[in-house]
């Protein structure tokens, strides 16, 4: 292996969203590899799953993620059968070997079941992939040869100096609102279940009501450790009776409903990671936006890299985010070689970032 450029034989990111790890593994997108890994069950990390089911020998994820993929992956009957045949549930830190390479999953705080991936090649090269994460509660992978990191909020514009206040403010807003009228909380799968647990920890005792799909995801989250309880499907007898009271309950809805039709006669709370001005912002007389995010902001991304101390950073540029800005900050602030992949940069520039010359 010649210098840092030699590490690119073992790690990369394709236009398909596939994160290449060693010779045998690809995560979060389709690549011609025998083993596909799913870091978590959000749609942009299940890219190419149907192709992987047709061509890969194994699909690896945490047990919670495997259940969520069945729930959220929109698999046909045939692909659902293939998924059940090929899925290998892997607990955090349990190591497996495949064709001489070793792999394990490490905890990532994002949604239930989210994981980082660590691969060690036959000749001892260690590659770590963070997937999506928030720093608090995420295990730092120490001293990998290559760290592949997300860049959703990779720009200095995306800082949340108030992030420690958000959970308490969400609790206070719900407690104040639910006494007056029903509360509807809008968000994505995973973030809704986190909000439910935050509210329960904060002393919110009112029943939660939700559509069937959110209910099923909540059942999975509770199975894998979330403390929620006292929740009901809106079509169940109990759910209908609770809503008929006209107040004293919290309803959880998918974010799509907030975009197109917020409800009247209720307090609307929209959970968004794209709010950086203030922790809670009023949208109208009965609607608020709460800056609850399940992604690391810019400062947390930099801090992860600083504490991890990799030899080389690859910033994932295949998904939404500010990959170029994050790579530039890693080079400039931390003095660690960093590139973006896939990249529009010419080979000469990439080699310059690696501190090497193009031969």
β-strand percent reads 15-25%
What is the first-to-last residue Cα distance? 15 Å
CATH superfamily of the largest domain: Ribonuclease Z/Hydroxyacylglutathione hydrolase-like
- The low-pLDDT segments are none
Output the radius of gyration.
21 Å
Largest sheet: 7 strands, mixed
Count the helices. How many? Answer: 11
Proper CATH architecture of the largest domain: 4-Layer Sandwich
Q: What would the principal axes of the Cα set say about the shape? A: globular
Whole-number mean pLDDT:
94
The CATH first-level class of the largest domain comes to Alpha Beta
| Sheet with most strands: strand arrangement | 7-8-9-10-11-19-20
Determine the structural class based on helices, strands and strand pairing.
alpha/beta
CATH topology category name of the largest domain: Metallo-beta-lactamase, Chain A
Q: What keywords describe this structure?
A:
30% helix; seven-stranded mixed sheet; single chain; 359 residues; 2 domains; alpha/beta; Metallo-beta-lactamase, Chain A; 11 helices; Rossmann fold
Task: Explain the layout of strands and helices.
Blueprint: E1 11-13, E2 19-21, E3 25-27, E4 35-37, H1 49-55, E5 58-61, H2 63-72, H3 77-86, E6 87-89, E7 96-98, E8 101-107, E9 115-120, E10 126-129, E11 146-149, H4 166-178, E12 183-187, H5 191-201, E13 208-210, H6 212-223, E14 231-233, H7 237-244, E15 250-254, H8 255-260, E16 267-271, E17 280-284, E18 287-290, H9 298-308, E19 312-316, H10 323-334, E20 338-341, H11 347-353
Parallel strand pairs: 3-4, 4-5, 5-6, 10-11, 11-19, 12-15, 12-16, 13-14, 13-15, 16-18, 19-20
Antiparallel strand pairs: 1-2, 2-3, 7-8, 8-9, 9-10, 17-18
